[in-house]
Amino acid sequence: MPGPSTPRTRNADTKKRKRDPAEKDAQAKRTRQQGDKSGKNGQADAGDLRDNALALLSQLQKNLTDDQIESELVKLGNTDAQATGWQVSKPMGGRMADIDPIFVEKEKYLILTYNTSLQIYSVAESLLVRRIALPVVQNTYAGKSSTPTIVATCLSHTNPDFVWVACSDGRIWRINWKKGTTVHDEFRTQSQSALDMSVAAIKGNQSTAEVIYVAETTKQFKGEIVAYFGPDFSNPPSEALFTTKKSDQGIHLLRASPDGKYIVGATRESLIVGTVTSQASQTDVGLEFEFFTFDSTDLICALDVHITDKNDGASALDLIAGGARGAIYYYNDILRKLQNLNGPKSKREPLQARKYHWHRRAVHSLKWSKDGHYMISGGSENVLVLWQMDTGKMDHLPHLSGSIENLVVSPTGSSYAVHLDDNSTMVLSTAEMKPTTYISGIQSAARFTSTPKDLLVRRVWSVEDDVRHPVPAALNPAEPSRLYVCTGTGQQAMLAGEQQSAPLLQSFDMEIFRSISKQALARTQPTDVNITSKGNPISEPRITHVAFSQDGKWLATVDDWQPPQRDLEKIAPEAREQFVKERREVYLKFWATREGDEPFALSSRVNSPHITSRPETVLALAADHTSNRFATLGDDGMVRIWQSKTRQQDGVTSKDTSGEALQSWSCSVAVALGSNVGADALALTGEITSERNGSICFSEDGSTLFIAFGSSNDGAVYVVDAQTGELRTTLENMWKGHIRRLQILAPYVITLSDDLRVYDVVADELQYGIQLPSGRNAPAVKEFSHLAVDRKSRTFAVVVPGGHASQLAVMKPEEPQLLCTKRIPHRVTSLVSTGSSSGFVAVDDAAQLWTVAEAADPGAVTLSKPLEDMQLDGEPVAEDAIIEDDDEAEDEEMAIGNEQEDPSDAMDVDDDDAQPAVINRQRLAELFDAAPAFAMPSVEDMFYKVTGLLATKPLKA
């Protein structure tokens, strides 16, 4: 294999001889002891590392416990980017929280609450204006305590430039969304807990005071509504307004009218309705309040109120409540009816609710229209439902891309903001029901921070809180800014059932930080029939591997599906294995990429690429770096190399509609790995089958294929000629335990298993090794340890999980020296790199993107920045910087022209004092959004159009 050897001197006695295949039956395997290292230089390296921060680089000589290893990882912290030349970007994106979006600034901007940040978007352009990070997650590596979450975000009614954010541990923040100032803890609730929050402005005798209503949990686990008064919220006075009588009755929903006079809430068994009146003086705010509670028919998971003024000057409180079993309950003038219960019998009325029922599962969100004649609801059916209150007639907007989590009616009532559980939000016009704004982040599987509303009641199915498998992802070498991530039809659909589903491929542009497209690569289920007759969600296939060819023109994918265990309950035990064999689906697919945003075209599909008497699991997929070839490794102990050829029929080349020759893919080389055979053959011989795993990688010149394959602790790496399929040699003791990844940086073979090992193939000795934690976090370490190499900078990155955090490190294979280390407070689910640009891209289970790259490399992968960071967000920050109308601009230009009567005076104008031209943002949007990128005019035409906007109009004679 080409590539220079490291200049380090080595002791010949410690070199391990490669094993010739011909000697396989003549002599027993010879394994290397972990302590067998190069004598002098091994000790010298240990001395060099004595003061190194990465003390766990122990050359595999120490047997550290998990706690000791994690303690070393915690000590690592983050390296100084200035000293190493490498840097880790700030996280971008995230998972949208189950919190209502907020329209601000006359509906020009939309505030979205993410699990880790607040993000402000322009409604007209769908562009990110500002990202405000929130210190929600503690930056710990092996934290074992529950992570706090954001529970509510409310706009201030006294100062619309601020929003209030409540955290589940009782922290309440006041944030200026226009300036994006640093977040500080304004105050903490008395109980150090918060379930929900609502903000109101109560008018007093002298002024209007802001009041924050917080639903808390007492020490006796009772629900409590507490009011906190302004204007000084550093240590605000508070008053408990209502406390539940029973324990374990937390108030999980809390809503208040803007004037603070009416409060409604919900517990698991009851609804709460209260009225608050102000007794204000010049010094403080006193509240008089009256609360009522009554049993609810269902567990309530959505609430909204509408205030109607009557002719007699009184107000009617209309309440709608969405149940966890799909029903909607409408309580007309509920407060008056509750108050009359304590009055004479003649005025008493039954608390009878009008019932509307269409949703099959929980009502996720429910809102009144502005006029109170309609209500809007949404749930897991992927359908937006509009209800006419008088007649009960329904209108539907079906086939949305995910289940509806939140609905908001804009202040003017002209738009709906709809948050879907596929991590997207759209703004719909109420007149045409067409989207005017679309905001989407990374849609890969993410960790649940709260219980899904569908599971508030007992179901026949369940949803996992954590991501169970790493998320396949890839960067297209032809378009390094495009990240392709495997995803599903929604967060709940991906994590429901026995296996994590992901039949879709999302294309995400990191430069503009926007989702480009989403394409089905495997069998998907229509949104209207996505559950069985017994209520179980229909499981979808999971894409397990993706890889692009070296020129980016081909994409290879592997998807896997097998019947869920519930389908085997009524089958005889002796017939279950045969039933699974017949119904399991494993497909290898080859897709031809297209220019622009066109979907990929399926070129070939291989059914069961690795098969014995049953379809075998595809353990690994790799692409050749020099030609359009792919290699797969299966659990049948076979490696197959796939190549394309021109498709012909009767000797005539087949072509597509554009005249391009069609290609078909087939296996060109098949290699059996030693005595390894399929799992069914081992069972026939009476051998005990154990879980086998593997990884493959082409050498940098494409001449050699390296395969790590076997059961636990086999440790063998097979070296195969990629042209002939001949097994050249076998390297023993190259990995331990479960092999996760094998990568090549000539002349080094890097393996990630229960430890990390860097092996010099030319010198035939171990360069160094790193111990990884196992045992307590064994499943997480097994699934979410990542390894990726950057051939441009000749570095590799490794990720080690711990708890719900991860430690990322970048190193060179020559020496065990850290170039960069970063503690990520989330579990990394994907780590990718590309050969056309340097650096790495990581995706975590909070749907955030991180990039790691050399700071001085102009070709490194980069992420889009908010408009604020690029100084392009003038409107929301400086209100005085208003773009003038066209007529006013022309008048000003005429005035300036009239003042310049003397030509000599014009020559004396100082260029430094010239005012820059101001371009109306709408004109720029019309210019650049006129057509898709592939249909845009030439660069020269666009240049003249932009300069035409900058140029001053000629004066009339």
List keywords for this structure.
single chain, mainly beta, five-stranded antiparallel sheet, four-stranded antiparallel sheet, 59 strands, WD repeat, WD40/YVTN_repeat-like_dom_sf, ribosome biogenesis, nucleus
Description:
By secondary structure, this protein is mainly beta. Among the domains are: 39-94 and 772-865, no CATH class; 883-950, no CATH class. 11% of the residues lie in helices and 38% in strands. The protein has 13 helices and 59 strands. Strands 1, 2, 57, 58 and 59 form a five-stranded antiparallel sheet that branches. A four-stranded antiparallel sheet has the order 3-4-5-6, with no helix packed on it. Strand 4 (109-113) and strand 5 form a beta hairpin. The longest helix has 14 residues, at 886-899. 43% of the residues are buried. Mean pLDDT is 81; it is low at 1-61, 139-144 and 875-915.
The helix tally amounts to: 13
Query: In which range does the helix fraction lie?
Result: 10-25%
Strand percentage, roughly? Answer: 35-45%
Would you tell me the structural class of the helices and strands? Answer: mainly beta
Largest sheet: 5 strands, antiparallel
Strand segment tally = 59
- What is the radius of gyration? 32 Å
**What would you call the shape?**
globular
Query: What low-confidence regions span 5 or more consecutive residues with pLDDT below 50?
Result: 1-61, 139-144, 875-915
End-to-end distance, in Å?
A: 77 Å
In round numbers, the mean pLDDT is 81
